[in-house]
Amino acid sequence: ENDRVSAPPLFIRQKQISVMYDIGKWMHDPKQPFDIDGWKAQYEQILDRSVKANPNVKLILCTPFTEKTGRSISSKDYETKRQCVEQCVKVVCELAKKYDASLLRYDLMFDELLQKETKDLAPEYWIWDGIHPTPAAHLRMAEMWIKAFKKLKIK
Protein backbone atom coordinates (compact mmCIF):
# COMPACT_ATOMS: atom_id res chain seq x y z
CA GLU A 1 0.00 0.00 0.00
CA ASN A 2 1.23 3.48 -0.83
CA ASP A 3 2.76 5.28 2.19
CA ARG A 4 0.91 8.50 1.39
CA VAL A 5 -2.38 6.63 1.49
CA SER A 6 -1.74 4.32 4.45
CA ALA A 7 -0.35 6.97 6.81
CA PRO A 8 -2.87 8.13 9.42
CA PRO A 9 -4.51 11.43 8.52
CA LEU A 10 -2.73 14.31 10.21
CA PHE A 11 -5.68 16.54 9.65
CA ILE A 12 -8.50 14.91 11.59
CA ARG A 13 -9.59 18.18 13.21
CA GLN A 14 -9.10 20.32 10.12
CA LYS A 15 -12.11 22.15 8.77
CA GLN A 16 -10.63 22.31 5.27
CA ILE A 17 -8.23 20.10 3.32
CA SER A 18 -6.64 20.88 -0.04
CA VAL A 19 -5.45 18.00 -2.17
CA MET A 20 -3.17 18.10 -5.18
CA TYR A 21 -2.25 14.48 -5.69
CA ASP A 22 0.75 14.40 -7.96
CA ILE A 23 2.10 12.15 -10.65
CA GLY A 24 5.62 13.54 -10.36
CA LYS A 25 7.49 10.28 -9.97
CA TRP A 26 5.97 8.97 -13.20
CA MET A 27 6.47 12.31 -14.99
CA HIS A 28 10.22 12.02 -14.44
CA ASP A 29 10.31 8.46 -15.80
CA PRO A 30 7.32 7.73 -18.04
CA LYS A 31 8.74 4.52 -19.53
CA GLN A 32 6.20 2.41 -17.65
CA PRO A 33 2.51 2.85 -18.44
CA PHE A 34 0.71 5.14 -16.02
CA ASP A 35 -1.86 3.31 -13.90
CA ILE A 36 -4.75 5.79 -13.95
CA ASP A 37 -7.08 3.37 -12.17
CA GLY A 38 -4.56 2.84 -9.37
CA TRP A 39 -3.94 6.58 -9.13
CA LYS A 40 -7.68 7.23 -8.87
CA ALA A 41 -8.09 4.51 -6.23
CA GLN A 42 -5.29 6.02 -4.11
CA TYR A 43 -6.77 9.49 -4.48
CA GLU A 44 -10.21 8.23 -3.44
CA GLN A 45 -8.68 6.44 -0.48
CA ILE A 46 -7.17 9.71 0.72
CA LEU A 47 -10.50 11.50 0.32
CA ASP A 48 -12.48 8.68 1.94
CA ARG A 49 -10.16 8.63 4.96
CA SER A 50 -10.35 12.40 5.26
CA VAL A 51 -14.16 12.48 5.14
CA LYS A 52 -14.39 9.52 7.52
CA ALA A 53 -12.10 11.31 9.98
CA ASN A 54 -14.18 14.49 9.71
CA PRO A 55 -17.53 14.24 7.88
CA ASN A 56 -17.84 18.03 7.87
CA VAL A 57 -14.50 18.71 6.23
CA LYS A 58 -14.50 21.03 3.22
CA LEU A 59 -12.35 19.81 0.36
CA ILE A 60 -10.49 21.76 -2.29
CA LEU A 61 -9.18 19.56 -5.09
CA CYS A 62 -6.53 20.89 -7.45
CA THR A 63 -5.89 19.60 -10.95
CA PRO A 64 -2.42 18.58 -12.10
CA PHE A 65 -0.89 20.42 -15.05
CA THR A 66 1.89 20.36 -17.58
CA GLU A 67 2.95 22.73 -20.33
CA LYS A 68 5.44 22.52 -23.16
CA THR A 69 8.07 24.85 -21.70
CA GLY A 70 11.71 24.63 -20.74
CA ARG A 71 13.19 21.18 -21.02
CA SER A 72 9.80 19.66 -21.83
CA ILE A 73 10.01 21.32 -25.28
CA SER A 74 12.61 18.77 -26.34
CA SER A 75 11.08 15.87 -24.43
CA LYS A 76 10.18 12.94 -26.64
CA ASP A 77 7.62 11.93 -24.01
CA TYR A 78 5.77 15.25 -23.74
CA GLU A 79 2.61 14.17 -25.58
CA THR A 80 2.42 11.01 -23.47
CA LYS A 81 2.80 13.10 -20.32
CA ARG A 82 0.19 15.60 -21.51
CA GLN A 83 -2.32 12.81 -22.22
CA CYS A 84 -1.68 11.35 -18.77
CA VAL A 85 -2.23 14.72 -17.11
CA GLU A 86 -5.46 15.18 -19.07
CA GLN A 87 -6.68 11.78 -17.79
CA CYS A 88 -5.82 12.83 -14.24
CA VAL A 89 -7.61 16.15 -14.67
CA LYS A 90 -10.73 14.28 -15.74
CA VAL A 91 -10.49 12.08 -12.63
CA VAL A 92 -10.03 15.08 -10.32
CA CYS A 93 -13.07 16.78 -11.87
CA GLU A 94 -15.13 13.61 -11.30
CA LEU A 95 -13.91 13.32 -7.71
CA ALA A 96 -14.72 16.97 -7.02
CA LYS A 97 -18.33 16.26 -8.03
CA LYS A 98 -18.47 13.00 -6.09
CA TYR A 99 -17.14 14.58 -2.87
CA ASP A 100 -18.87 17.96 -3.34
CA ALA A 101 -15.44 19.60 -3.31
CA SER A 102 -14.29 22.95 -4.61
CA LEU A 103 -12.26 22.47 -7.77
CA LEU A 104 -9.21 24.47 -8.77
CA ARG A 105 -8.43 24.01 -12.45
CA TYR A 106 -4.73 24.79 -12.40
CA ASP A 107 -4.44 23.12 -15.81
CA LEU A 108 -6.74 25.75 -17.33
CA MET A 109 -5.00 28.53 -15.41
CA PHE A 110 -1.66 27.58 -16.97
CA ASP A 111 -3.19 27.18 -20.42
CA GLU A 112 -4.58 30.69 -20.13
CA LEU A 113 -1.41 32.19 -18.70
CA LEU A 114 0.65 30.77 -21.54
CA GLN A 115 -1.84 31.78 -24.23
CA LYS A 116 -2.89 35.23 -23.08
CA GLU A 117 -0.26 36.53 -20.72
CA THR A 118 2.96 35.58 -22.46
CA LYS A 119 2.90 38.21 -25.18
CA ASP A 120 5.75 40.03 -23.47
CA LEU A 121 6.92 37.10 -21.35
CA ALA A 122 8.57 33.80 -22.13
CA PRO A 123 6.35 30.83 -21.19
CA GLU A 124 9.08 29.81 -18.73
CA TYR A 125 8.13 32.87 -16.69
CA TRP A 126 5.17 30.80 -15.47
CA ILE A 127 6.31 27.18 -15.59
CA TRP A 128 10.02 26.72 -16.05
CA ASP A 129 10.37 23.06 -16.99
CA GLY A 130 6.92 21.94 -18.03
CA ILE A 131 5.79 20.76 -14.59
CA HIS A 132 7.16 23.10 -11.90
CA PRO A 133 5.60 26.54 -11.40
CA THR A 134 7.74 29.61 -10.92
CA PRO A 135 7.23 32.03 -8.01
CA ALA A 136 4.99 34.16 -10.26
CA ALA A 137 2.83 31.13 -11.04
CA HIS A 138 2.75 30.10 -7.38
CA LEU A 139 1.33 33.54 -6.63
CA ARG A 140 -1.44 33.03 -9.20
CA MET A 141 -2.14 29.55 -7.78
CA ALA A 142 -2.31 30.99 -4.26
CA GLU A 143 -4.69 33.74 -5.34
CA MET A 144 -6.94 31.14 -6.95
CA TRP A 145 -6.82 29.01 -3.79
CA ILE A 146 -7.60 31.95 -1.49
CA LYS A 147 -10.60 32.87 -3.61
CA ALA A 148 -11.92 29.28 -3.38
CA PHE A 149 -11.22 29.12 0.36
CA LYS A 150 -13.13 32.34 1.02
CA LYS A 151 -16.16 30.89 -0.78
CA LEU A 152 -16.21 28.03 1.74
CA LYS A 153 -17.06 30.49 4.54
CA ILE A 154 -15.41 28.40 7.23
CA LYS A 155 -15.79 29.70 10.77
Structural class: mainly alpha
Order of helices and strands: HEHHEHEHH
* Strand arrangement in the largest pleated sheet: 1-2-3
Question: First CA to last CA: what distance?
Answer: 35 Å
| Number of DSSP helical runs | 6
pLDDT averaged residue by residue = 85
The total count of strands amounts to 3
Range of helix content: 40-55%
Low-pLDDT runs: none
The best one-word shape is flat
Largest sheet: 3 strands, parallel
Strand content: 5-15%
Throw out a few tags for this protein.
155 residues, mainly alpha, flat
Short description:
The chain is mostly helical and 155 residues long.
Describe the protein:
This protein has 155 residues and is mainly α. The protein is 50% helix and 8% strand. The chain contains 6 helices and 3 strands, in the order H-E-H-H-E-H-E-H-H. It has helices at 3-6, 24-28, 36-53, 78-98, 106-116, 135-152; strands at 16-19, 58-62, 102-104. Strands 1-2-3 form a 3-stranded parallel sheet, sandwiched between helices. Strand 2, helix 4 (78-98) and strand 3 form a beta-alpha-beta unit. Helix 3 (36-53) runs parallel beside helix 4. It is flat. The chain starts with a helix and ends with a helix. The mean pLDDT is 85.
